[in-house]
Design goal:
The complex is a heterodimer of chains A (115) and B (118).
Chain A lengths: L3 E4 L2 E4 L5 E7 L5 E8 L3 E10 L2 E4 L7 E3 L5 E6 L8 E8 L10 E2 L3 E5 L1
Chain B lengths: L2 E3 L4 E5 L4 E3 L2 E3 L5 E8 L6 E7 L7 E2 L2 E6 L4 E6 L8 E9 L10 E2 L3 E6 L1
Parallel strand pairs in B: 2-12
Antiparallel strand pairs in B: 1-4, 3-9, 5-6, 5-10, 7-8, 8-9, 10-11, 10-12
Classes of the chains: A mainly beta (115), B mainly beta (118).
C-alpha cells in the first residue's frame, strides 16, 4: 500500500551540484509526473511520462531532465543546481487511458534547497 | 492554453461555520474534469472532490460540495460545518480530454490558504 514514494524527502545542494530525485509507484500506473511547488505559484508541471520509455516537457522544464526506464520509476535530474530551483518537488501518477479519471496519486514531496 | 484562477489567496472561517472557496477557469474544451485538492501542513496532496464537466449535477462528498457553473466557467468549493482539521491549502485543478480520449495533465490554480479558527 505504498502508493507513490519519493526519495529523498529533504536535500540541500550547493550551486552547481547535481542530483537525482527518485519517484516509485506500485500501482501499475501508466502516467507519471513531476511538479514543483513554490509559494504563491501553485503546482507547475516540469516533465511527464505517458509510458515506459517516453517523456515530455511540461510548463517549466528548463534545467531538469527525466527518465522513465522502468514503468514504476520516474527520475528527475538536476545537472547543475541553481538557487532558482529551490522548491518542493512532487511526483504523481495516474492510470492514464480513457478514464474514469480520479486525478492523481501524489507522493509526499521533496524539499530541495540550493544554496 | 487552459488557466485556473483562485482569487482568494487566504481565507478564514470559524469552526462549525460554512465557507466557500472560489475557482474560475478558462478553456475552449467541452469535455474535462475539475478537482479540488487539499494540502494540510503535512504537505500531502489529498483529493477532496471531483466534477465531470458533462454532468450537470454538482458533486458532493460529505461536508464538501461544489457549485459547478459550466457556462460561467466557475467551480467553487463549499465546506460545511468547518472543522479544525480543514485548515490547509486548497487547490483547484483542471484536466482536459486529450486527443483520442486519453488523459490530459492536471493544471493547478495558485491555491487558497484556509484557516479554521476555534
Amino acid at each position: 500500500n505504498a502508493g507513490v514514494t519519493q526519495t529523498p524527502k529533504f536535500r540541500v545542494l550547493k550551486t552547481g551540484q547535481s542530483m537525482t530525485l527518485l519517484c516509485a509507484q506500485d500501482m501499475n500506473h501508466e502516467y507519471m509526473y513531476w511538479y514543483r511547488q513554490d509559494p504563491g505559484m501553485g503546482l507547475r508541471l516540469i516533465h511527464y511520462s505517458v509510458g515506459e520509455g517516453t517523456t515530455a516537457k511540461g510548463e517549466v522544464p528548463d534545467g531538469y531532465n527525466v527518465s522513465r526506464l522502468k514503468k514504476q520509476n520516474f527520475l528527475l535530474g538536476l545537472e547543475s543546481a541553481a538557487p532558482s530551483q529551490t522548491s518542493v518537488y512532487f511526483c504523481a501518477s495516474s492510470p492514464g487511458g480513457t478514464g474514469p479519471w480520479n486525478g492523481y496519486t501524489f507522493g509526499s514531496g521533496t524539499r530541495l534547497t540550493v544554496v | 492554453a487552459q488557466t485556473v484562477t483562485q482569487s482568494q489567496p487566504e481565507m478564514s472561517v470559524q469552526e462549525a461555520e460554512t465557507v466557500t472557496l472560489s475557482c474560475t477557469y478558462d478553456t475552449s474544451e467541452n469535455n474535462y474534469y475539475l478537482f479540488w485538492y487539499k494540502q494540510p501542513p503535512s504537505r500531502q496532496m489529498i483529493l477532496v472532490i471531483r466534477q465531470e464537466a458533462y454532468k450537470q449535477q454538482n458533486a458532493t462528498e460529505n461536508r464538501f460540495s461544489v457549485n459547478f457553473q459550466k457556462a460561467a466557467k466557475s467551480f467553487s468549493l463549499k465546506i460545511s460545518d468547518s472543522q479544525l482539521g480543514d485548515t490547509a491549502m486548497y487547490f483547484c485543478a483542471f484536466m482536459k480530454h486529450a486527443y483520442g480520449g486519453s488523459q490530459g495533465n492536471l493544471i493547478f490554480g495558485k491555491g487558497t490558504k484556509l484557516s479554521v479558527k476555534p
